[in-house]
UniProtKB/TrEMBL annotation:
Native source organism of the sequence: Hebeloma cylindrosporum
Annotated positions binding heme: C439
Name of this protein: Cytochrome P450
Keywords in alphabetical order: Heme, Iron, Membrane, Metal-binding, Monooxygenase, Oxidoreductase, Transmembrane, Transmembrane helix
Family: Belongs to the cytochrome P450 family.
Alphabetical list of InterPro entries matching this protein: Cyt_P450, Cyt_P450_CS, Cyt_P450_E_grp-I, Cyt_P450_sf, Cytochrome_P450_fung
Signal peptide region: none
A single MF term (Gene Ontology): oxidoreductase activity, acting on paired donors, with incorporation or reduction of molecular oxygen
Membrane-spanning ranges: 6-26
Amino acid sequence: MTPSFPSWILTTEGAIGVALFVFVFYKAVAPSRNKFPPGPRPLPLIGNVLQIPTDNQEQVFADWGAQYGDIVHIKIFGQPLVILNSLKASRDLLDKRSSIYSDRPRFVLLSELMGWETASTHLRYGPRFRKHRRFINQTFNPRALSAFRPLQEKEVLVLLEGMLQNPDAFVDHFRRYAAATILKITYGHDIISVDDLFVRLAERAGTLTTEASSAAANMVDFFPLMKYIPTWAPFSDFKVKALETRKAVEAMMEIPFEQVKVDMRSGTAVPSYTSTLLGSQRDSNGCISAEDEEDIKGSAGTLLAAAEDTTIASMHTFMLAMVLYPHEFKKAQQEIDKVIGRNRLPNLDDRPSLPYLECVLKEVLRWNPMVPLGMPHRLMEDDFYRDFYLPSGTTVLANIYAILRNCNEPDSFRPERYIDEDGLPDPQGVIFGFGRRICPGKDFADASYWAIASSMIAAFDICKAVDHEGNDVNGKYDFNHGFVRHPKPFKCIIKPRSSNLPALISQARAELNLYPSSTVPEH
């Protein structure tokens, strides 16, 4: 008997569909002649999608590393993804072979629906990426950082004053510091509170971007045709959210940038990253190309978006660690008292003299790295590492969380490990990424982190909040497991160590007049 086929198979569209299915199925199940790194067994067609949790991925990937080795290979709808769970593998590939590991995966939803093609975090590796990096390095190179020190020290004093007035809002004070420093550097803009328009724009864009990165949205990266689904169709919520996010991101980039241009035309612009670049990129006729202007706007917006959330997360984590580990907090306090005394606040000149404090701050970053999986890299050509084949187009993640847990008693908060144990990865050399994609603002971020933490330890006593029976009001402590790991909200007690603190702040503010007032280095 002749078998009967569904009539749609006899159409051209049907034949193409069958051929596509057979090809994808074959690619998913056929053995490769090359040896991939080990990993959990994938299912046909969908790969390892069902084995990847939506929460706490860094821990699952670390567990896979313990089972399969420090290089883990998985597939998502036929697309290869490699997870690096050791510092050696990350350095060997992302640093030493950075010329072929410096691309980013193409985030279809972000780049095409949200208009992020010019944001340097998401730029493909090439001339425009290098141009953005050159712009940013002119402002954030190590030689130029001294110009930012007066701004950082001033904003730390504003933060301490805020803590005195309203200690329960400590996260808002960190948020104001992060916004005040990056907005001043990037746009020359001064803020008074977290209710500032530019701050609200940045926070809305960041919140919506996180929410837009849903499972459905991520599917677009594997099935780009989904971007053509109309907004009225079923399962189109992800696209509606993406379009809303695009408007927020455009507002975050456009409004501060246009304000700088208005101020430059009126002659009232404050020297800043944006105004300096807009001036330096003009030709002999005073004109600037549309591409240069777009690149300046995009890189400035990226600085704003990238700096704020990670600064808040690092300080929020620091506060949680000081609450949970009072012995280490008191020991750091005693070191500051011994070296500096209690008649002034610490500053960055004191940093080499406070080795235990340095260990505490490293341990905070190890204990909870703010961006546990870093930003993904994309392999630009076929590569071989050890005995493994890594095909072009592979997405590569460095599991920073797993790398920093490669130590004795990783669940313990023990700053002394950086004195007692040799060869430990330095968190400050890991959390900012690898290779040509390393964060260009890492030295500025590190200086801010040290300045805030040292001043908080010197100025305040920090402890758990308890009820009238002495019970911890928080019950338990945990982290939100997203792209950036924040502690979940908690309460604590923050009290000034001395009634003389306002005088110390005033003294430090007066001494700032010794520094030059410029906040942006000349190029």
